[in-house]
Write a structure and sequence with these properties.
alpha+beta, Jelly Rolls, eight-stranded mixed sheet, 13 helices, 13 strands, globular, binds N-oxalylglycine, binds nickel (II) ion, IPNS-like_sf, Plant_2OG-oxidoreductases, oxidoreductase activity, metal-binding, oxidoreductase
Length: 376
């Protein structure tokens, strides 16, 4: 039995406290990190003296100017986009067109949600992976041996008429702010999908015959009907940030993730040499990353990259991840147009049910799920 397991079973009172989340733990007043949150030395964020945990401070994520993408510079920007997806699996989008007040309201209402009394927040606690709204802590609070320093609110966004009645009723403006933001994020996502498909050579483009246009529209329609999940992450300030993580290394399930963050840094991505790179928050921008489904769909050309979140001792941090993909029941496989003799199929078929079965059955570590879909 692992030390974490024995601790869990030995001390039900402590365990019950940890299950209530880190915000609650902080409110009860702690000055040091409980052992449940302490990572083994090799997994801690700031290991000095070499190895995989040294970060590169001079790194800047590629920037995609969305306004330019929609203009005459589109071919050059598509090139940049495709390089970013191949090399980093991540880019920042500026001039994305989502109004500043929509973004501000989303961040603002998220902060106020986590400031509500625990009793109010806990109404939405659920361990049902398919619940339309789910408040929780850590990564997988029923399975994680070591807990991470994060609380979250997950909001399923699609189809809106089915899910909205379950969303929190307080703060009173949460639903309105979150619906508005989620619609704007979906609109941007669709434009980015169009760009991604075009960059992979899968859309014929704007000057084409009617039948080609119909094929393109059908391809995009499937994305329009796809799934959307918003995860509001709250990382309270932490008494010993060098011993824990806000989120462990993981890749995102899905096609693309659009990440909105406040001005506090914390996100790191892993480069191909295994080095952790800080993503500096750029005001008014969104971070976009390739998810497992896009890696599979592109037959491995675009990379779903490991990322993690550091916490800090002075500031709490809020982020809102909007995760988009195909409809839940759709089988995900490499696009047939990207598979040929020179570039054989590299992934098995997968679907959402397979993923749920996978995450429910094990402690989700790194990108195991994607690894499990690779063909030998
Ligand atoms: C996520 C994620 C990063 C962050 O929600 O999947 O990676 O900065 N979030 O909160
Ligand atoms: Ni992520």
């Amino acid at each position: 039995m692992s030390p974490a397991m024995s601790q869990r079973e030995d001390d039900p009172i402590l365990e019950c406290r940890f299950q209530k989340g880190v915000k609650h733990l902080c409110e009860s007043g702690i000055t040091s990190l409980p052992s449940r949150y302490i990572l083994p030395v090799s997994e801690r964020p700031n290991l000095r003296g070499g190895g995989m945990n040294v970060s590169d401070l001079n790194f800047k994520l590629p920037i995609i100017d969305f306004a330019q993408l929609q203009g005459p510079q589109r071919p050059q920007v598509l090139n940049k986009l495709s390089k970013a997806c191949e090399e980093y699996g991540f880019f920042q989008v500026t001039n994305h067109g989502i109004p500043g007040d929509v973004i501000q309201s989303m961040i603002d209402v998220s902060k106020r949600f986590f400031d509500l009394p625990f009793e109010e927040r806990s109404k939405y606690m659920s361990t049902d992976m398919r619940a339309p709204v789910r408040y929780g802590t850590s990564f997988n609070q029923k399975k994680d041996g070591v807990f991470c320093w994060r609380d979250f609110l997950k909001l399923v966004c699609h189809p809106p008429s089915d899910v909205l009645p379950y969303w929190p009723t307080s703060p009173a403006d949460l639903r309105e702010a979150a619906v508005t933001y989620s619609q704007q994020a979906k609109f941007l996502y669709m434009k980015l999908v169009e760009a991604v498909l075009e960059s992979l050579g899968l859309l014929v483009g704007t000057t084409m015959h009617a039948d080609e246009e119909n094929a393109d529209n059908a391809a995009l329609k499937e994305f329009e009907d796809g799934s959307q999940l918003m995860v509001v992450n709250c990382y309270p300030s932490c008494p010993q940030p060098d011993l824990t993580l806000g989120m462990p290394p993981h890749s995102d399930y899905g096609f693309l993730t659009l990440l909105l963050q406040d001005e506090v840094e914390g996100l790191q991505i892993q480069n191909c040499q295994g080095k952790w790179l800080n993503v500096e928050p750029l005001p008014n921008s969104l971070v976009v990353n390739v998810g497992d489904h896009l890696e599979i769909f592109s037959n491995g050309r675009y990379k779903s990259v490991l990322h993690r979140v550091l916490v800090n001792s002075s500031k709490s941090r809020i982020s809102v991840a909007s995760l988009h993909s195909f409809p839940f029941d759709r089988v995900v496989r490499p696009s047939p147009k990207l598979v040929n003799e020179a570039n054989p199929r590299r992934y098995k078929d997968t679907d959402f049910a397979t993923f749920l079965a996978y995450v429910s059955s094990c402690e989700p570590k790194r990108k195991n799920f994607l690894e499990s879909r690779k063909l030998p």
